[in-house]
Amino acid sequence: MQRRHENDSFFIGVGLVASIGLFALAIRSVNAPASQQEDVTAIVADCRNASPEHRKTEKDVMAFANQERQKLGVPELQWSDALADAARYHSCRMMALNFLDHVDPQFGELGQRLRVAGLDTSNVGENIFKAKGGDPARYSVDLWMKSPHHRDNLVDLTYRWTGVGIAVAADGTYWFTQDFSAAAPK
Questions:
Q1: How far is CA 123 from the centre of its chain?
Q2: Quick one: 38 exposed, middle or buried, by C-beta within 10 A (0-12, 13-18, 19+)?
Q3: How far is the C-alpha of 124 from the C-alpha of 145, rounded, in Å?
Q4: What confidence score (pLDDT) does residue 36 get?
Q5: Contact assessment for residue 125 and residue 179, using Cβ atoms and an 8 Å cutoff
Q6: Within 13 Å of residue 155, how many CA atoms lie on the same side as its CB?
Q7: What is the C-alpha to C-alpha distance for residues 31 and 177, in angstroms, rounded to an integer?
Q8: Which residues is 12 bridged to in the sheet?
């Protein structure tokens, strides 16, 4: 079963945690004009060649997620390069097209995107996040744990596999996607 929440929100990572509350901002999808498609393709291709530092940040997200799962007695997530590649592609497209949503304006929702990547879509979930500054890996997991829908994905007992993909904009803004799957990715 694919989970996508129609009212999903995101959290911008600069000072939005005030007291105990979280502020959410709805995001609209932005389609790039046809004249910009080549630029978007080039940006995404460059973005997908993540540096070792960015790959470490992706693995840090999984480690922090597993710490939260361990606190609740939930089995640890296993890393999937295939899910990470799909997540990284989505993060790069969100950054290049400046949208934050589970639905890519060209490639559709999570299930459609994972099918194109050749992955099982029978029981999948996704968390997304955008932040600037601080420790974005820790901050993403902290805020996901405070959001009921995101927390549900993070600690779902049926999810055994995960992949995290990040994109980092020129201004230092991080775009995160964490995909989850119950089935072992092939």
A1: 16
A2: exposed
A3: 18
A4: 57
A5: yes
A6: 18
A7: 19
A8: 130
177 against 54, higher pLDDT: 177
Amino acid making up residue 80? S
Which structure tokens are listed for 101? Answer: 């949503």
Contact yes or no for 155/146 (Cβ under 8 A): no
Helix (H, G, I), strand (E, B) or coil at 114: helix
Query: Over 11-25, what HEC string results?
Result: CECCCCEECCEECCE
Nearest to 150 by CA among 102, 115, 98: 102
Buried b / exposed e across 78-109, counting CB within 10 Å, b at 16+? bbbebbbbbbbbbbbbbbbbebbbbebeeeee
Report strand pairing: 161-168 vs 78-79: parallel
Of the candidates 130, 129, 114, which has an alpha carbon nearest to the alpha carbon of residue 182? 114
Q: Give the lowest-confidence range in 46-50, 65-69, 176-180.
A: 46-50
